[in-house]
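In response to reviewer comment 3 from the previous cycle, which asked for concrete evidence that the modeling workflow produces usable outputs, we include below a single protein chain processed end to end. The sequence was submitted unchanged, and the resulting structure tokens are shown without manual editing.
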Amino acid sequence: MGIGAEYARLDALAMAELVRRREVTSTELLDTALQRVDRLNPRLNAVVHRLEAYARTAIAAGLPDGPFTGVPLLVKDLDGEVGGTPYQGASRSLAGYVSAADTENARRWRAAGAVIFGKTNCPEFGLLATTEPVAYGIARNPWAPERSAGGSSGGAGIAIAARMVPLATGGDGGGSIRGPASANGVFGFKPTRGRTPDGPVTYMPWQGLVSRHALTISVRDSAAFLDATCAPEVGATSIAPPPARPFLSEVTTEPGKLRIALATRPLTGGPIDPECVAAARDAASLMASLGHEVEEAAPTIAADEFNRAFLTIVAAEVANIVEDVGGVVGRRLTWRDVETETWALNLAGRQVRGHEMVAAQQCLWQCARTVSTFLTRYDLILTPTLTTLPAPHGSIRPQGVEALLLRAIVRLNAGGLMRLAGALDRNAKTVFNVVSSLTPFNAAGLPAMSVPLSWTTSGLPVGVQFAGRFGDEATLFRVAGQLERARPWAGKVPPGCD
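The workflow returned the following structure tokens.
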């Protein structure tokens, strides 16, 4: 009995199989996970709520018989409330708040037998492409602690890369699963819109831009976790087409010859690091060597209009979040309760007029049509996941004069001045540049994944993205399984995390 050093070499399904065969207990797995968190978290800051008592109580009560029975699970402190545990969304405004009940996705995680034992770091309300919240502090990339772990599921990405756990939950409204997967060298999968639940507290978060799932070491864990969580939710406003068979079975199914579009220029504009382009071209060569047809092509998206529309919807959603949180804590929030960027988005959201919101949604729907029409000619689109390597801490946030202007506007509560100054547009453009090949697939509700196929000569991971047709996670899992067999990544572990 016991798990020891073997823990870091196992994926979640392998751990569950050991529990099933009674070669290890759920408690031993939990003890090992807690030991790894205690050893690694002080320098990485991936886990922000340690829920040991909650986990031990769940084990003592008896775990459900499911595909992940006994497997330790970390939950992003944003994507799913777990009854009786802290839920803060990385915001000072929610300090001390404890969830009253499970959301539907949390209920399904527990029904699968997983043992929830902690919450992971994220930016405040998931708004940035880096995880550096004031409430929790900087989450540090295990490959290079001076660099970003991405956002918003940055803590989850770190926890997987450092082998604290083989599986951690995340949500993706603009690249928040795929970006951290790339930055930390792990597998990240965003399902089709409506594939996984959002309720009962909210439906269609960010007007349908968000899909919830997980980051994992192995492809099969991701597929099995989606099998366990993907049943239609009562009252859902969007439901994905039912899969033909379990996603887990797709991982070992050969995809056949596919037609793949390689798009190395950012889909919604901005610069890109040559090493990100090189990673995508290398993946294209690998796909060609596996028998697929690859050609350079990309859907045409009006970048400025798209980014403005995306920002409009996010800003309006943030204004609503600020109102909701005020209701939870029993008072109206002020700029002192949240971070500068959050309040700036709140001010901008309060300036959005009804016709602007409708126009923004129409713009994103037009993008969805454009991308989906493009995919009638190709099976998949291949891009760099991010346009940059993991960035130094602080570099993605507003700098210099822009930061000063933003702070001044926030302190003055000058939403109208913000509209005139265009400060938010310029700051958002900097952030959107990082994820400019990710957000179109949120707008279209299409499944997409970041696959850890490349590392730079200096040891930084560089993910590549594959996106598929609406409801066709099966093709993506087939390709991911093929790539995992051709170029395994599970043995790549950050220094000091083995």
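The radius of gyration is 21 Å. We consider this sufficient to address the reviewer's concern, and the full set will be provided in the supplementary archive.
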